[in-house]
Amino acid sequence: MDSWWYNLSKNEMDTPCLVLDIDHFEKNLRYMYNWSETIGKKLRPHAKTHKCSEIAKRQLAEGNCAGVCAAKISEAEVLLESGIKVILITSPVVTPFKINRLIGFRNHGSR
Q: How far apart are CA 52 and CA 11, in angstroms?
């Protein structure tokens, strides 16, 4: 992986830019997994928050997730293309154009 960006100052980074502390991120993943297991519920994280398929994959891999959420068809398409199959679209889909895009999900194996 190319890591030229690793030594950039915050003023040199292009925005929007997702930057996270990986140790805190992994600690939070474990915390949410343990908490949801304790109360007997499944998680369904919303990708709208981070807009990052790699984070969504890590959330799913940690376990106890029923899938992920996306607010828009375009967000769900990116998740689907990255290999995530269980996606709940949380906004109404009412236009013929977007309904046809949604129907296309079935052709990619999404549930």
A: 22
- Summarize pLDDT for 47-88 with one digit per residue, the tens: 988 889 999 999 999 989 999 999 999 999 999 999 999 999
- CATH 3.40.50.11720 correct for 20-107: no
One-letter amino acid at 27 equals K
Is the model's pTM score more than 0.85? no
Tokens, residue 45? 């994280």
Torsion of CA 54, 59, 61, 62, to 10 degrees: 140
Where do the structural domains in the chain lie, given as residue ranges?
Answer: 20-107
Amino acid identity, position 33 = Y
